[in-house]
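hey team, just a heads up i'm posting the complex here instead of the shared drive bc the drive is being weird again. everything in one block, sequence lines first with there labels, then the predicted structure for the whole assembly after. its two chains so it's a bit long, scroll down
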Amino acid sequence: MHILPQLIFAVLLAVAAYFIFRSISKIRFNILLGKSYEPSSSIPERWANMTLTALGQRKMFKKPLPAVLHLFVYLGFLIVNVEMLEIALDGLLGTHRLFSAPLGSFYPFIINVFEFFAVTVIIACAVFLIRRNIIHVKRFSGKEMTKWPTLDANLILIMEIALMMAFLTMNASDKLLQGRHEHYIATGNFFFSSLLTPLLSSLSVGALVVLERSAWWLHIMGVMFFANYVFYNSKHLHIFFAFLNTYYARLIPQGEIDNMASVTKEVQLMLGLTPTNTTPTDPAAPMRFGAKDVQDLTWKNLMDAYSCTECGRCTEQCPANITGKLLSPRKIMMDTRDRLVEVGENIRQHGKDFQDNKSLFDYISEEEILACTTCNACVEACPVQISPVEIIVQMRRYKVMEESKAPGSWNAMFSNIENNFAPWKFSPSDRFNWSDKL
Amino acid sequence: MSELNKVPVAAELLAQGKSFDVLFWVGCAGSFDERAKSVTRSFVKILNHLNISYAVLGTEESCTGDPAKRAGNEFLFQMQAMSNIQVLNGYGVKRIVTTCPHCFNTLKNEYPSLGGNYELMHHSTFLQELIDKGQLKMKESGSFKGQKITYHDSCYLGRANGIYEAPRKVLEVLDADLVEMKRCKTKGLCCGAGGGQMFKEPEKGNKDINVERTEEALSTGATVIAAACPFCMTMLTDGVKNKEKESSIKVFDLAELIAKNEGL
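-- predicted structure starts here --
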């Protein structure tokens, strides 16, 4: 009889782990559809950047209030999850509060710390829900914030509150059962959950056991469900990708746009120079300038898309968006991710060469990419160092170099540079005329 | 022609067997745009006034390729870059100063991997160093003393290359009352010209970016908007015109402000 809950628990854990593993494999597969990318930074620089930016949340503090609230949820997530170790072991071994005896008086202290963070998570998530649904903070709305992204955000917050409530309820009923039921060993006092005991004190021992077990199961199953939810297709992936994305971030001046190596060789040949890059290009590999679809982007661009938690700090700072243009950097990232999920699924189902006659341009319009001033306000604003600008420039390159499709005035600018060596139609021999009037 | 008005050209110096310390990269705007030409002349006057050993390329200069690159025409960019690198390396150029943040960013960050390695300085940093060395001093009764000046961060100087303090230090020499716009430094709002926008009509929206920025500058109550970029200069000047505030607020480049202050 006693073995049954253990078995159920073990099976649930294995099923949850399997589905998480499957989701991670798909994400990894999708990201690796991108082109090669090697950050120029050294490994110590990458660790330093990740520690400061992801772990230290450096960029979050541009907005102090959300930063503090977010910090509590983040710390709560990291710290309360330590308790998961005890819960998982109890579930598998059929024990109860396994760590209580070995840790002695340190145990209630730890639980009190967990409870403190559980309370702060509840408060912070409640404030976040109010900001999203009652105050309607502007950056949480926008054309791309359709039904699902909005629901996704609210579901995550509600789930986090529910998980923490389950944890506190579990502790409160446990404490009431201590001394009244042999299974519930004395643990010392839990401060925060004890505030709930007046609500529960009228319950019978039987009812309390049911409540405690329900809360325990709800908590652990909730965590397993939440983990699966996050990895399945949620914006909440940032809890994981924030670290990877900052580790692999481009630590070069934001203004620098990469020089396309494939172009360098051709230009050198055209100018009668010896190509500096002598590695032969694979003639079988189809060469494309810029990006028409997600596979033309680097895997880092694709990882950027998975790292985006749709907070809207980028769009809020975008000069084009502020002045009513169609461009929203957040939408660039969300569209890239949606298209990537679609392409990945197509390839897994129909093979590598499957074409659905769609491209990234079915998600992101020319009007959007043309509105960008490359001012990098979005890049600067992003707490996890995502660059929508790189994707925009790659898409412009495709339009200009593959389709020769640029606005007329840009074509005029190009031909001026080509013929007159200046973007305007002036004679190069007049270039030094400014000195006449000194 | 007095010494103050002479502009040394690299080719002529080479022919005379003379060398120079720093190359002044004028840029297309600085060479052809009426307003930017005045900035070029102001900067040259400062260089001459302080006896800096410099040269310009004159008619040998050519577009860096920045607008082409950002509009997506990588071919044209690299064609320009490689031709320019041949010219620059031909003169053995080591240091470059420029009044254009777009030229600055491209030469500094995008030329090295194509074979062009130079020590790059924007004129704001260049002027700041002259101030630090004591070569440029604050005038007791300069023409901008006590005036409200607001500095507009150029994206390609600020966020693109992390230069926020140098232009502000230069303005301190004027003994003016520096006021910041709400969106400044890392949060500075673009003037609307970058990424090739200077060379096309803006996309459909409910406002032009330069108007949005000019309104913010006007709200500070400043009488001078200080710019450090020829494109910002154009956008903000147009914005001021759009708001019909030409009589109450002027847009000047850092070099113009310093030259005026020095009576050059």
